[in-house]
Amino acid sequence: MVTRILLAGESWMSYTTHVKGADAFYTSVYETGEKYLKAALEEGGYEFTFLPNHLATEEFPFTMDGLRQYDLIILSDIGANTLLLPTLTFTRSQIQPNRCSLIKDYVLEGGALLMIGGYLTFSGVDAKGKWQDTPVQDVLPVRILPTDDRMEHCEGVRPVKAADHAVLDGIDTEWPLILGYNKTIAKPEAVIPVKVEDNPFIALGEYGKGRSAAFTTDCAPHWAPPGFCQWPGYGKIFCNLAKWLTDR
């Protein structure tokens, strides 16, 4: 049976003003950051569905049956508001299901969840990720800070192995440098196979019948530079995480 994965997030739009003396003009661009993760998991035999931020507002499942179409939900660089403010609620004040509560129940009933770091996961830039205020916090192995949790390291910082675990199978080389991560606090029940600056880098937990994991840096630039994304261990670590999370 093929294991089905849904990645929500990892997209952004930029609107730039160019000023040249007395004149100005504008450009816009749409970009995504899923390609390394998608390639790694598809090579590992997983069925991968990508739901970018601007579509997740309406297309992320509103029902448990919808979530159960997937064996693993990945949240990466997507703010909680994207799920908490569906169009009908924001524009017409209509009551809709709380999809953050659904994710919690999905895990407790046997689903798998992976949160990957970024400017809008965990707490994120200016604490706008807001996941610390949602039921998703209850089924993560780390406690999310209530403030901006970004740890920026333009000089590079290296994750280090902290304990043996199946998610590290085949990772027998030194970890590459990363350029930043989300600072979190490990919960008492968490298993921490990898740390960065004595903070959780990979954290694992079991909740109800399901499992969850936190990967506190990005899966793409800028925090995960090319040397990290092209490292042979990149595909191994994400495939190992997917295998452990869905192996129930």
Describe this structure in words.
By secondary structure, this protein is of the alpha/beta class. Helix content is about 25%, strand content about 35%. It contains eight helices and 14 strands. The protein has helices spanning about 35-45, 55-60, 65, 80-85, 85-90, 100-110, 225-230, 230-245; strands at about 5-10, 10-20, 25-30, 45-50, 70-75, 110-115, 140-145, 150-155, 160, 180, 185, 190-195, 200-205, 210-215. The strands form four sheets. Strands 4-1-5-6-14-13-12-9 form an eight-stranded mixed sheet, with helices on both faces. Strands 2-3 form a two-stranded antiparallel ribbon. Helix 1 (about 35-45) packs across helix 8 (about 230-245). The longest helix has 15 residues, at about 230-245.
Task: Summarize the topology.
Layout lengths: L3 E6 L1 E10 L2 E10 L2 H9 L3 E5 L1 H7 L4 H4 L4 E5 L3 H5 L2 H6 L6 H10 L3 E5 L25 E3 L5 E8 L2 E2 L16 E5 L1 E3 L4 E6 L2 E9 L2 E6 L10 H4 L2 H15 L2
Parallel strand pairs: 1-4, 1-5, 5-6, 6-14
Antiparallel strand pairs: 2-3, 7-11, 8-10, 9-12, 12-13, 13-14
Helix pairs in contact: 1-8
